[in-house]
């Protein structure tokens, strides 16, 4: 219980209030690139054959690993192009 003689503590400013609204207002065209790693694996023509094989693996399996690399590369590119610079 608190002491009745002390005033209640006032809440301080929310440190995340400014960052959440600035992220919500980010309408960068670079963000459209994030659809690439979502849509490319949905195209069945890319993995609907057995050849070519890479290190003995059929196309389906090594393409799954390639899709991971595509997602990482795309996400990294979008992050680098949309992050806030120190002086701006």
From TrEMBL:
Membrane-traversing stretches? 30-49, 61-79
Q: What keywords are annotated for this sequence in UniProt?
A: Membrane, Transmembrane, Transmembrane helix
Pro residues bias (residue ranges): 1-14
InterPro entries the UniProt entry points to: DUF3311 (IPR021741)
Q: Domain of life here?
A: Bacteria
Region feature (Disordered): 1-25
For the keyword Transmembrane helix, the answer is yes
Protein's UniProt name? Membrane protein YhdT
Question: What is the source species?
Answer: Micromonospora purpureochromogenes
């Amino acid at each position: 219980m608190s002491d009745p003689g002390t005033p209640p503590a006032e809440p301080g400013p929310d440190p995340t209030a400014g960052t959440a609204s600035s992220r919500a207002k980010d309408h960068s065209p670079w963000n459209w690139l994030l659809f690439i790693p979502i849509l490319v694996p949905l195209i069945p023509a890319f993995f609907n054959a057995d050849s070519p094989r890479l290190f003995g693996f059929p196309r389906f399996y090594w393409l799954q690993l390639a899709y991971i690399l595509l997602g990482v590369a795309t996400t990294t590119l979008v992050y680098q192009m949309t992050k806030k610079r120190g002086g701006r």
